[in-house]
Amino acid sequence: xxxxxxxxxxxxxxxxxxxxxxxxxxxxxxxxxxxxxxxxxxxxxxxxxxxxxxxxxxxxxxxxxxxxxxxxxxxxxxxxxxxxxxxxxxxxxxxxxxxxxxxxxxxxx
Length: 109
Hints:
The protein is of the alpha/beta class. It has one domain. Helix content is about 45%, strand content about 20%. It contains four helices and five strands, in the order βαβαβαβαβ. A five-stranded parallel β-sheet has the order 2-1-3-4-5, with helices on both faces. The longest helix has 20 residues.
């Protein structure tokens, strides 16, 4: 799967995804770290990437739009990077399965 990790999440998440067999970039990797949500949305759609974000705006936009990138919405409290990546790793198989079934908005709690 191809992922685009949003600015409020660590670049280490994109690196971890890439190390585990996924195509992943952080918005900083592609010059979008300060970009408006609409530009990130367009970029992800053009690259067929799933946006990984803590931003509820992307989730709401996905609900209202029949087209566009899929969204992995992380609804977790602020935490240390190690804990975040550990939680992410434990839930990723279910997340991938959800996207493979055709879901376009997946929440990780």
